[in-house]
Amino acid sequence: MIVVDASAFLSVVLGEPAGDAVLRALLEQGGEAQPRESRSGSRAERLVETLVAPEFLALEVTNSILQMRRRTRRLGMSVDPASVVGVGTDRLANAVRAHFEELGITLESFSSRVDFERTCQIAELCGLSAYDAVYVAFAEHRGARLLTLDKAMSAAATSIGITTLPAMPHASRDPNSDAN
Fold it and tell me: What is the model's pTM?
């Protein structure tokens, strides 16, 4: 089982270069890719590996997309309502849900008192925001690995014994470098 955070999910959905690294990391972990048709044009493939996330992920992803749209408008750039995730704001929630389904991510409840307390402990112990600590606590609770592009979250998870998946694009080595 792999817990996916917003940074990893958004990188795939938005077609960022890191999205390819995220998909590679999932495939290298033993997930078998199954080709599928994507209504969104996403380059992702459905994986056999179980992918889960706390329900909170839907809100975090939607908020990130809305913030991207607002920031673009504030900068005076012309914004096509379909330019981020391919839909207007009126259909954004349905589009986000469709991406979860296309990638095979199951959203699960994570709201018990014990879950909340552990999230607070991890946030305090590791210096994370409560939002980031949710993913770490969720992975710990499920006995799952964590897939994130967030270096601080990855370090925090590793420090409390949670396996993280390497999903950063491999840096190319400068042939003129003296390093071996």
Answer: 0.76
